[in-house]
Amino acid sequence: MQEKKIKVGIVGISFGMEFVPIYQRHPNVESVAVADYNRSLLATCAEKFHIPAEDCYTNLDDMLKDTSIDAIHICTPPASHAELSIKALNAGRHCGCTIPMGMSIDELYEVIEARKKSGKNYMFLETTVFGREFFYVQELYKKGELGKLQYMTCAHYQDMEGWPEYWEGFPPLMHPTHAVGPCLMMLDKKPVSVYGIGSGRVRDALKEKYQCPFAFESAFINLEDSDVTIEMERFLYEVARSYQECFRVYGSKKSFEWQQLSDEDPVLYERTGDIQQDMIDIDGDPDRFARGGEIIERRIKVPDYGYRLPEEIAFFTTETVYNDENEHLSFKQGGGHGGSHPHMIHEFIMSIVEDRKPLIDDIKGAYWTATGICAHLSAMEGGKKMPIPDFAKLD
Ligand SMILES: NC(=O)c1ccc[n+]([C@@H]2O[C@H](COP(=O)([O-])OP(=O)(O)OC[C@H]3O[C@@H](n4cnc5c(N)ncnc54)[C@H](O)[C@@H]3O)[C@@H](O)[C@H]2O)c1
Fold it and tell me: How much is the pLDDT for 352?
């Protein structure tokens, strides 16, 4: 284990408070500073986590004056992400930013440009690719157990009634990465084009800000050098379905389907014989009583991957700041985000300490975010196929 220690500043400590104790216990973190406009939240956080007054700020500009801070973790509302990321990078700090990376394709380019100019790390802090379900299916895929990958689908269903007003009318696929992140991460192929379709209608008041009329947006994504298509869908308002961030992966030998209800277990389907061979009887004639291969279906318990982490933070895969007594709505609805938080923070810290690119850098973050932005634009144009910008050529 590297001995280098860094100081981290978290901006936005509503959901962001979740990460304070993880950083504080991480063996490569010296100390944690926090910033929030909300002074009462700041005081609560300082008291709960024993953060000295000199490490509490009401804005990022003041926080950046502390030259001992190496990395900034941004957890403010979406419209501020690109601006604050650029500010942190321009000030010579490493930057991790929660989802979405930006609100437009232009903002994604601007963050990439700032990262390149700064020579510092940018990590896109998408939780779903650090969750135990993703780790489990990724292992199956890497071991070849799924066989030939044929199709993937993903979704993020969330009812945003009662959430802060800045979410009102947010076009569903403009912020797609909880759904599409795991699918794109697993295949690691560039998304090259997408077409989206809008369905249903939201009430007039929700259309005002973004002029998006749709309750649901769905899309099909094409990848470079791959015959696999990814289907993604999302809604935010006026659909009666409980919370879910999920994906399904269909292979020729095994397929994984996320559980329908949050208190169930996922299903693994497995083909028992070879394709075709098991449908031919001994004389070489098709057996009319054996049409269709045998597929076994079983519910599986997805293991926890805390053992991959330093022991100081491993228990955070199952214990969190926000819990039944101390609720944050996204956490309550998200079922603890699959134990992802300590894995994600560990990757952010170690990429800095080891002086390497983070697993989800600005280029990946831009592809994942842009896939949704382009899908939404396509839906607004009645399903016109949209090219996704080639961010990799900027790297
Ligand atoms: N699974 C996940 O990855 C996940 C889950 C929940 C939220 N999020 C993301 O986290 C972000 C925050 O979500 P939330 O629910 O905590 O939002 P929130 O509106 O409840 O809290 C945002 C906080 O940031 C503070 N703030 C805003 N701008 C600031 C600035 N410039 N400087 C200092 N403080 C500032 C506000 O005072 C507030 O306390 C959102 O972008 C959301 O998408 C991600």
Answer: 98
Q: Distance between CA atoms of 250 and 94, rounded to whole angstroms?
A: 37
Any idea what DSSP says for residue 381? T
Q: Which atom of ligand 1 is nearest to the CA of 15?
A: 16
The atom of ligand 1 lying closest to the CA of 36 is 34
Whether 182 is in the pocket of ligand 1, judged by its Cβ within 6 Å, is no
pLDDT (tens digit per residue) in 225-261: 999 999 999 999 999 999 999 999 999 999 999 999 9
User: What phi and psi, each to the nearest 5 degrees, are found at residue 109?
Assistant: -60, -40
Residues 6+ apart with CB under 8 A from 88: 60, 64, 72, 74, 94, 95
CA dist 371 and 162 (Å) reads 27
User: Which residue's CA is the nearest one to ligand 1's atom 21?
Assistant: 14
Taking the centre of ligand 1 as the mean of its atom positions, its distance from the CA of residue 92, in whole angstroms, is 23
Concatenated DSSP letters of 261-307: STTS--EEEEE-S-TTGGGB-TTSSB-TT--S--EEEEE-PPPP-GG
Could you give the residue ranges of the DSSP H alpha helices within the chain?
A: 20-25, 39-49, 60-64, 81-90, 105-118, 132-142, 177-187, 311-314, 329-334, 341-353, 362-380
Structure tokens at 221: 């994504």
- Does residue 103's CB lie within 6 angstroms of at least one atom of ligand 1? no
Largest separation between any pair of C-alpha atoms in the chain: 83
pTM of the model: 0.94
Within its chain, how far is the Cα of 36 from the centroid? 23
Residue 80 Cα to ligand 1 midpoint, Å, equals: 9
